[in-house]
């Protein structure tokens, strides 16, 4: 999909400059949400036994609700920090920002993120302004510029495809094992 953002080129160059140029005064963190995480059978590719192929349930019930994963990727170290929550609102996003601020207390944080409305909430804007965090927004329909999307693709492929988790704890353990 082509971007309709009139500032697409400027925003793209800003993000790419953060990726390409090492910062002296801070750290670049890519943030995004992954989900919703349903408890459902997911097809995937695997070597199948000759006579008995692996089967997935044909039906499932959504009795346990969904979960949302809020994650950040530190470009300096390549480490992923995440939280899995039952909701995805500005409060959960602000909690993630506070955890990132506590992790790197003396550095300025450049947070690359999309235009999801909780990222622009008034209370998030107020807290960010006083805590040395600069939000760098991606252009509209430019989520492919966010480096963490590649990590999510790998997470989906290696940890979730071909699975049929029966509980959120089981699914969270699979995600944690992959990220470790």
UniProtKB/TrEMBL annotation:
InterPro entries: RNaseH-like_sf, RNaseH_sf, Tc1-like_DDE_dom, Transpos_IS630-like. Residues 27-168 form the Tc1-like transposase DDE domain. Pfam families: DDE_3. One of its GO terms (molecular function) is nucleic acid binding. This is Tc1-like transposase DDE domain-containing protein. The lineage of its organism: Bacteria, Bacillati, Actinomycetota, Actinomycetes, Kitasatosporales.
């Amino acid at each position: 999909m082509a971007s309709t953002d009139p500032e697409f080129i400027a925003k793209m160059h800003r993000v790419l400059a953060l990726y390409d140029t090492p910062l002296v005064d801070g750290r670049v963190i890519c943030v995004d949400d992954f989900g919703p995480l349903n408890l459902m059978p997911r097809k995937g590719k695997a070597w199948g036994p000759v006579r008995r192929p692996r089967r997935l349930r044909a039906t499932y019930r959504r009795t346990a609700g969904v979960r949302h994963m809020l994650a950040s990727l530190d470009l300096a170290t390549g480490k992923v920090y995440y939280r899995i929550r039952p909701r995805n609102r500005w409060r959960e996003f602000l909690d993630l920002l506070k955890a990132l601020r506590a992790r790197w207390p003396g550095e300025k944080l450049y947070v690359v993120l999309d235009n999801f409305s909780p990222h622009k909430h008034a209370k998030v804007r107020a807290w960010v302004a006083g805590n040395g965090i600069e939000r760098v927004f991606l252009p509209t329909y430019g989520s492919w510029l966010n480096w963490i999307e590649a990590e999510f693709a790998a997470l989906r492929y290696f940890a979730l495809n071909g699975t049929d988790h029966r509980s959120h704890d089981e699914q969270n353990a699979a995600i944690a094992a992959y990220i470790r």
